[in-house]
Amino acid sequence: MDKLLITGGATLSGEIRISGAKNAALPILASSLLTKEPVVYSNLPHLNDITTMISLLGSMGVSVVLNEDMSVEISTETIKELTAPYDLVSTMRASIVVLGPLLAHFGQARVSLPGGCAIGSRPVDLHIKGMEALGATVEVEDGYINASCEGGLKGAHIFFDKVTVLGTENVMMAATLAKGTTVLENAAKEPEVVDLANCLIAMGAKISGAGTDTITIEGVESLHGCHHRVIPDRIEAGTYLVAGAIAGGRVRIKEVIPEHLDAVIMKLKEAGAQLSQGDDWIEIDMNDCTLKAVDIRTAPYPAFPTDMQAQFTLLNAVAEGTGTVEETVFENRFMHINELERMGAKAKIKGNTVVIKGLTGQKGLKGARVMATDLRASACLVLAGLVASGETLVDRIYHLDRGYECIEEKMAALGATIQRVSG
Length: 423
Ligand SMILES: CC(=O)N[C@H]1[C@@H](OP(=O)(O)OP(=O)(O)OC[C@H]2O[C@@H](n3ccc(=O)[nH]c3=O)[C@H](O)[C@@H]2O)O[C@H](CO)[C@@H](O)[C@@H]1O
Ligand SMILES: C=C(OP(=O)(O)O)C(=O)O
Prior knowledge:
This protein is α/β, with parallel strands linked by helices. It folds into two domains: 3-19 and 232-421, UDP-n-acetylglucosamine1-carboxyvinyl-transferase, Chain (Alpha-beta prism); 22-229, Enolpyruvate transferase domain (UDP-n-acetylglucosamine1-carboxyvinyl-transferase, Chain). The protein is built from 13 helices and 24 strands. It has helices at 22-31, 48-59, 86-89, 99-106, 125-133, 165-175, 191-202, 234-247, 262-270, 309-317, 335-342, 375-387, 407-413, and strands spanning 3-7, 12-17, 39-42, 63-66, 72-75, 83-84, 108-112, 137-141, 144-148, 157-159, 181-185, 206-208, 214-218, 227-229, 248-254, 274-277, 281-285, 296-297, 322-326, 346-350, 353-357, 369-371, 391-395, 417-421. The strands form six sheets. It has a four-stranded mixed beta sheet with strand order 22-23-1-24. Strand 20 (346-350) and strand 21 (353-357) form a beta hairpin. Helix 1 (22-31) packs parallel to helix 2, helix 4 (99-106) packs parallel to helix 6 and helix 6 packs parallel to helix 7 (191-202). The longest helix has 14 residues, at 234-247. The termini are close together. It comes from Reinekea thalattae. Keywords: Cell cycle, Cell division, Cell shape, Cell wall biogenesis/degradation, Cytoplasm, Peptidoglycan synthesis, Pyruvate, Transferase.
């Protein structure tokens, strides 16, 4: 199993390009199932999760071709199977978003339940209720969701009990081919939902309100092919900004949409960082700045993202003062805390809140052998290694490879001492 070996202490500086957003690319790949015509997607990140989604489409008989310009062309004309098997779904929760497109286009779907994972139980009840509200018959049997809709789906007024990103995306995709109008209330407003809606609109879907909490979809007979460029990854961008905050120097990230990072930028400024931005770049400059611990509360967009919580927990661990981090989205997303404690961090967990006393002015974090438990916990441990004294060995980095394209190359380009150790 690959590991990352990081020698702490280097000051980061320079510029890097941010990759396409994993969480936008995954549902967009699934949306190809809504049309018979070929679709072309560009700016897909080179990540294990993307490979898994492509394998899932391939396992159904869908044709996926990589073009010379690195865009991917997908055609469902050859589809044979309407099943998303356990082997693939269990490795990636986002596979659940093939349910809506399969059901809407082919009238049936069999999708393995994704199960729980390291950050919480993550049920899919709201996805299922959404499909039922659109008129589907859904049964859960032997770990599989079996859904069908003889005569097609019908538009409905749906209120989500909780804000759910993949749930909103799944039901929005299903509703594009339903008869009549669907209104989704308490919908997720994440930029990835908007990117998916824009892709669907380019395929001929009639969608308004994406990016607000009420999305209206007027069903159409069929969707056609499109070319869509995936938005930049705001979580990857935020992770490199935190790296700059704790180990910079001056770090510039390019090819980003700065407004997607408003909540993160605000917290970095509150932490004492100097930030500037242009249309598609953000620069963090830590020269002459003292990093101060900040209070964070995660919540759905546009509030502070849960996917940046672990990175900011680490920021607090190496800043001046005491910061409180409240996790309101997932019930078990503090797995990185134990590992940070092994490196010397001072943290106390009480329910869904962790209080961290920064180590500035004391000895700071010390390198250690640590275990990555989920994607963002892994990122947090890599960042910890950058500022710890001595060497940090991060084990189980397959989590990291799900979400960070070329992380060691990008970190090394900024001046970090980091290498992948195989086996
Ligand atoms: C591939 C992808 O886009 N993943 C993101 C997506 O995950 P994902 O879409 O799975 O997360 P949700 O927004 O659905 O989860 C929010 C909360 O709702 C709960 N819930 C969700 C669905 C459901 O049917 N029932 C239910 O109770 C979840 O357990 C969680 O407590 O949004 C999360 C929240 O921003 C991010 O951390 C993930 O990176
Ligand atoms: C939790 C995440 O991803 P997923 O929903 O794919 O597990 C994430 O991107 O931080």
